[in-house]
Amino acid sequence: MQSKDLLHLAEQFGSPLYVYDAEKIQSQYNRLSKAFSKVNKLRINYAMKALSNVAILQLLRDMGSGLDTVSIQEVMLGLHAGYEPEKIFYTPNGVSLEEIEEVNAMGVQINIDNLSILEQFGARHPDVPVCIRINPHVMAGGNANISVGHIDSKFGISVHQLPHLVRIVENTKMNIVGIHMHTGSDILDIEVFLYAAEILFDAAKNFKNLEFLDFGSGFKVPYKKDDIETDIEELGKKLSKRFNAFCTEYGKELTLIFEPGKFLVSEAGYFLAKVNVVKQTTSTVFAGIDSGFNHLIRPMFYGSQHHIENISHPKGKERFYSVVGYICETDTFANNRRITEIKEGDVLSFRNAGAYCFSMASNYNSRYKPAEVLWMNGEGHLIRAHESFEDILRNQIPLPQAVESV
């Protein structure tokens, strides 16, 4: 997308505004598929927690994608978006047995990540095809909050607990059809990924009726010009060769599954915000925008970097600005960032806003959530309306008159 297109959308739909480029989502999906074209059975399940708008789900559904879900509500959204139950993969963490059983009744693939629930579910439903999430004890990811495969992680069944796991499966006569892992996000070193894959291969040898191996995702995308990213093509060559060899050893052609979220939608997203005030202090020039971490929490939560461009004056002289929001506490998007000269009323564009931006948005400070627009075939399509005061009041129940008068 070009800056002029984004500026037009900000004028048309107002700000703040999320914009998603359909062509970029499609190209990322095709890139991953091509990288693993040597694998006969490849399945891509979009990790919808990254961006769960129904229009985005439908776009990926039409490309052949399945879904990776982590809650019963995400499963329901997937079904609403037209996914067949067998194309939906459910990997919860710390949920009740009741929720898992309710999702199972919907016909989706269950993935269990702890021994307690595994034993209980297996005792009740020994014939249900189940996947098991293994914790490989591999530290990977760009931030401690998104590294989920290490020894202190709450996710998955420890690879060191395999004997206990196998005993549960044998006692309950469960039907284990898949093994799953996910080490973390923003993985750069593909050798770490390949090392974890070997752990998954070894674990898989304990189960004789597997249909697939799920390697999760966590591929890093570039956040700025010339930034490093996961070499998907190199990973495709090495892991495809090893996976095919394992299938030969196993004596059965298995399906290789990935669960990309950020990889598919992050670079497709733009977050547009208008500058309310330019504030000069004794040491800093602040550009205060009409948004805050209620709409884009990742810089405050993960310390993530989003490239910021002044699309109102892209060719101006560069100055140093700290870009901040309107939330009534520390609310910083960028410190001393070089941006072309900013004036009040200018529109700033934040890149890489497709993943974990709207999906983590809130009504903190009783602010509205912005609209979402899908840029497709050279046109902006509104896929979520801007919230109103009625949305803030929805589901709130005022006190009865008798109580108010006390």
UniProtKB/TrEMBL annotation:
Entry cofactors: pyridoxal 5'-phosphate
SUPFAM superfamilies named in the record: Alanine racemase C-terminal domain-like, PLP-binding barrel
Binding positions (pyridoxal 5'-phosphate): G218, Y356
Descriptive protein name: Diaminopimelate decarboxylase
One Pfam family linked to the record: Orn_DAP_Arg_deC
Residues bound to substrate: R298, Y302, E329, Y356
Catalytic EC class: lyase
Record's keyword annotation contains Repeat: no
Lineage: Bacteria, Pseudomonadati, Bacteroidota, Flavobacteriia, Flavobacteriales
Organism this protein belongs to: Flavobacterium micromati
EC number: 4.1.1.20
Reactions accelerated catalytically: meso-2,6-diaminopimelate + H(+) = L-lysine + CO2
N6-(pyridoxal phosphate)lysine, modified sites: K49
